[in-house]
Protein backbone atom coordinates (compact mmCIF):
# COMPACT_ATOMS: atom_id res chain seq x y z
CA UNK A 1 0.00 0.00 0.00
CA UNK A 2 1.22 3.43 -0.92
CA UNK A 3 -0.47 6.72 -1.70
CA UNK A 4 1.96 7.40 -4.55
CA UNK A 5 1.34 5.74 -7.91
CA UNK A 6 4.91 6.64 -8.86
CA UNK A 7 6.30 4.84 -5.80
CA UNK A 8 4.16 1.79 -6.59
CA UNK A 9 5.42 1.75 -10.19
CA UNK A 10 9.04 1.88 -8.97
CA UNK A 11 8.35 -0.86 -6.43
CA UNK A 12 6.84 -3.05 -9.13
CA UNK A 13 9.92 -2.65 -11.30
CA UNK A 14 12.27 -3.27 -8.38
CA UNK A 15 10.41 -6.45 -7.37
CA UNK A 16 9.96 -7.84 -10.88
CA UNK A 17 13.09 -10.00 -10.56
CA UNK A 18 11.45 -12.06 -7.79
CA UNK A 19 9.40 -13.97 -10.36
CA UNK A 20 6.54 -14.49 -7.92
CA UNK A 21 3.17 -12.81 -7.35
CA UNK A 22 3.53 -9.30 -5.91
CA UNK A 23 0.45 -7.43 -4.72
CA UNK A 24 1.00 -3.66 -4.65
CA UNK A 25 -1.99 -1.46 -3.91
CA UNK A 26 -2.81 2.22 -3.93
CA UNK A 27 -4.02 3.29 -0.52
CA UNK A 28 -3.08 4.19 3.02
CA UNK A 29 -0.81 1.55 4.59
CA UNK A 30 -2.42 1.08 8.00
CA UNK A 31 -6.00 1.09 6.75
CA UNK A 32 -5.13 -1.22 3.86
CA UNK A 33 -3.53 -3.84 6.06
CA UNK A 34 -6.21 -3.51 8.76
CA UNK A 35 -9.16 -3.79 6.42
CA UNK A 36 -7.92 -6.35 3.93
CA UNK A 37 -9.63 -9.72 3.86
CA UNK A 38 -6.59 -11.30 2.18
CA UNK A 39 -3.70 -13.12 3.76
CA UNK A 40 -0.11 -12.85 2.62
CA UNK A 41 3.19 -14.70 2.89
CA UNK A 42 5.12 -11.43 3.30
CA UNK A 43 4.19 -7.96 4.47
CA UNK A 44 6.92 -5.42 3.67
CA UNK A 45 7.14 -1.85 4.93
CA UNK A 46 10.01 0.44 4.00
CA UNK A 47 10.48 3.84 5.63
CA UNK A 48 6.78 4.33 6.34
CA UNK A 49 6.07 3.29 9.94
CA UNK A 50 8.08 6.14 11.47
CA UNK A 51 5.32 8.50 10.30
CA UNK A 52 2.77 6.70 12.50
CA UNK A 53 2.09 7.22 16.19
CA UNK A 54 3.14 4.50 18.62
CA UNK A 55 -0.46 3.27 18.84
CA UNK A 56 -0.73 3.17 15.04
CA UNK A 57 2.54 1.24 14.75
CA UNK A 58 1.24 -1.30 17.26
CA UNK A 59 -2.01 -1.50 15.30
CA UNK A 60 -0.10 -2.04 12.05
CA UNK A 61 2.00 -4.84 13.55
CA UNK A 62 -1.06 -6.57 15.02
CA UNK A 63 -2.91 -6.23 11.70
CA UNK A 64 0.08 -7.50 9.71
CA UNK A 65 0.37 -10.46 12.06
CA UNK A 66 -3.33 -11.21 11.57
CA UNK A 67 -3.02 -11.08 7.76
CA UNK A 68 0.05 -13.28 7.51
CA UNK A 69 -0.24 -16.91 6.51
CA UNK A 70 1.34 -19.51 8.83
CA UNK A 71 5.13 -19.11 8.72
CA UNK A 72 4.71 -15.69 7.09
CA UNK A 73 7.07 -12.81 7.72
CA UNK A 74 6.79 -9.08 8.14
CA UNK A 75 9.85 -7.21 6.87
CA UNK A 76 10.28 -3.70 8.24
CA UNK A 77 12.97 -1.26 7.13
CA UNK A 78 12.79 2.05 8.91
CA UNK A 79 14.45 4.61 11.14
CA UNK A 80 14.65 3.86 14.85
CA UNK A 81 16.01 5.70 17.81
CA UNK A 82 18.68 4.32 20.08
CA UNK A 83 17.15 2.89 23.26
CA UNK A 84 18.52 5.76 25.35
CA UNK A 85 17.63 8.45 22.80
CA UNK A 86 14.55 10.68 23.11
CA UNK A 87 12.84 12.03 19.99
CA UNK A 88 14.37 15.52 20.29
CA UNK A 89 17.91 14.16 20.54
CA UNK A 90 17.23 11.77 17.66
CA UNK A 91 15.93 14.60 15.44
CA UNK A 92 18.97 16.78 16.16
CA UNK A 93 21.46 13.97 15.56
CA UNK A 94 19.70 12.56 12.50
CA UNK A 95 19.36 15.96 10.80
CA UNK A 96 23.00 16.82 11.57
CA UNK A 97 24.09 13.48 10.10
CA UNK A 98 21.99 14.04 6.96
CA UNK A 99 23.42 17.53 6.56
CA UNK A 100 26.95 16.11 6.72
CA UNK A 101 26.09 13.49 4.06
CA UNK A 102 23.82 15.35 1.61
CA UNK A 103 26.38 17.73 0.12
CA UNK A 104 24.57 18.06 -3.22
CA UNK A 105 21.45 19.58 -1.64
CA UNK A 106 21.16 23.33 -1.26
CA UNK A 107 20.51 24.97 2.10
CA UNK A 108 16.89 25.54 1.03
CA UNK A 109 16.44 21.90 -0.02
CA UNK A 110 17.89 20.68 3.26
CA UNK A 111 15.56 23.00 5.15
CA UNK A 112 12.58 21.34 3.41
CA UNK A 113 13.89 17.87 4.30
CA UNK A 114 14.50 18.86 7.92
CA UNK A 115 11.06 20.47 8.25
CA UNK A 116 9.50 17.24 6.96
CA UNK A 117 11.51 15.14 9.40
CA UNK A 118 10.86 17.35 12.43
CA UNK A 119 7.12 17.55 11.71
CA UNK A 120 6.41 13.98 10.75
CA UNK A 121 9.02 11.52 12.01
CA UNK A 122 8.17 9.60 15.17
CA UNK A 123 10.56 6.62 15.24
CA UNK A 124 10.36 4.17 18.10
CA UNK A 125 13.41 3.05 19.96
CA UNK A 126 14.57 -0.49 19.22
CA UNK A 127 13.34 -2.00 22.50
CA UNK A 128 9.86 -0.50 22.21
CA UNK A 129 9.57 -1.67 18.60
CA UNK A 130 10.58 -5.22 19.57
CA UNK A 131 8.07 -5.12 22.44
CA UNK A 132 5.32 -3.98 20.05
CA UNK A 133 6.15 -6.88 17.74
CA UNK A 134 5.98 -9.32 20.65
CA UNK A 135 2.59 -7.97 21.78
CA UNK A 136 1.36 -8.31 18.18
CA UNK A 137 2.16 -12.03 18.34
CA UNK A 138 5.46 -12.29 16.49
CA UNK A 139 7.48 -15.03 18.16
CA UNK A 140 10.77 -14.29 16.38
CA UNK A 141 12.08 -10.77 15.94
CA UNK A 142 15.40 -10.61 14.15
CA UNK A 143 17.25 -7.43 13.30
CA UNK A 144 18.69 -8.26 9.89
CA UNK A 145 20.45 -5.00 9.06
CA UNK A 146 21.48 -1.76 10.67
CA UNK A 147 23.16 1.39 9.48
CA UNK A 148 23.10 4.10 12.12
CA UNK A 149 19.38 4.84 12.65
CA UNK A 150 18.26 2.71 9.69
CA UNK A 151 17.17 -0.76 10.77
CA UNK A 152 15.79 -3.83 9.06
CA UNK A 153 13.71 -6.35 10.99
CA UNK A 154 12.29 -9.73 10.07
CA UNK A 155 9.28 -10.54 12.22
CA UNK A 156 8.19 -14.16 11.93
CA UNK A 157 4.79 -15.74 12.44
CA UNK A 158 5.39 -19.33 13.44
CA UNK A 159 2.93 -21.93 12.22
CA UNK A 160 0.24 -22.64 14.79
Would you give an account of this structure?
The longest helix has 15 residues, at 87-101. Strands 1-2-4-3 form a four-stranded mixed sheet. Helices cover 45% and strands 21% of the residues. The chain has 160 residues and is of the alpha+beta class. The chain starts with a helix and ends with a strand.
Give the secondary structure arrangement, pairings included.
Blueprint: H1 5-15, H2 29-35, E1 40-46, H3 54-67, E2 68-79, H4 87-101, H5 107-120, H6 126-136, E3 140-147, E4 150-156
Parallel strand pairs: 1-2
Antiparallel strand pairs: 2-4, 3-4
Helix pairs in contact: 2-3, 3-6
In short:
Helix content is about 45%, strand content about 20%.
The level of helicity is 40-55%
Number of strands: 4
Radius of gyration: 16 Å
Mean of residue pLDDT? 95
Shape: globular
Please count the helical segments.
6
Distance between the termini: 27 Å
Quaternary assembly: single chain
How would you characterize the largest beta sheet?
Answer: 4 strands, mixed
Structural class: alpha+beta
Largest beta sheet: strand ordering: 1-2-4-3
Low-confidence stretches: none
Residue share in β-strands? 15-25%
Query: Order of SSEs, N→C?
Result: HHEHEHHHEE
State the main characteristics.
160 residues; globular; alpha+beta
Amino acid sequence: YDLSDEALAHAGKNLDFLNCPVDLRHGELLEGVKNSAQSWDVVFSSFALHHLSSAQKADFLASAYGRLKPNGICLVVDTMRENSEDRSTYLDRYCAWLESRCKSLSHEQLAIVFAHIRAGDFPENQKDFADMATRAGFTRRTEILRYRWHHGWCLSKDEA
